[in-house]
Design a protein that fits this description.
0% of the residues lie in helices and 50% in strands. It is mainly β. The strands form two sheets. Strands 2-10-9-4-5-6 form a six-stranded mixed sheet, with no helix packed on it. It has a four-stranded antiparallel sheet with strand order 1-3-8-7, with no helix packed on it. It has no helices and ten strands.
């Protein structure tokens, strides 16, 4: 059974930082390109960043230069370091193995102005 458990979210002031984690189990984590998505209230879910099995990262324009995606294949864990947070980064953040039907339960990130 595939499980994806996000953690590390919370409330932070604008300009602050958070690091999200996604612990994966029940799948061969290291072979997947992994992605972070987010969904703000009333908006569609959007792709934030992806990282290939080899570590190549791609970012959306809205987070480029502020967020860093990384992975530890030995720990089956995906990370998202978020710096210089803005109120518009407020959303529920999800991790997902790209091309799969699996999603984590999501973790709330709230950035106050």
């Amino acid at each position: 059974q595939v499980q994806l458990v996000e953690s590390g979210g919370g409330l932070v002031q604008a300009g602050g930082s958070l690091r999200l984690s996604c612990a994966a189990s029940g799948l061969t984590f290291g072979i997947y390109t992994m992605g972070w998505y987010r969904q703000a209230p009333g908006k569609v879910r959007e792709l934030v960043a992806t990282i290939s099995s080899g570590g190549t990262a791609v970012y959306s324009d809205s987070v480029k230069g502020r967020f860093t995606i990384s992975r530890d294949n030995a720990k089956n864990t995906l990370y998202l370091k978020m710096n210089s947070l803005k109120p518009e980064d407020t959303a529920v953040y999800y991790c997902r193995p790209q091309g799969s039907l699996y999603w984590g339960q999501g973790i709330q990130v709230t950035v106050s102005s």
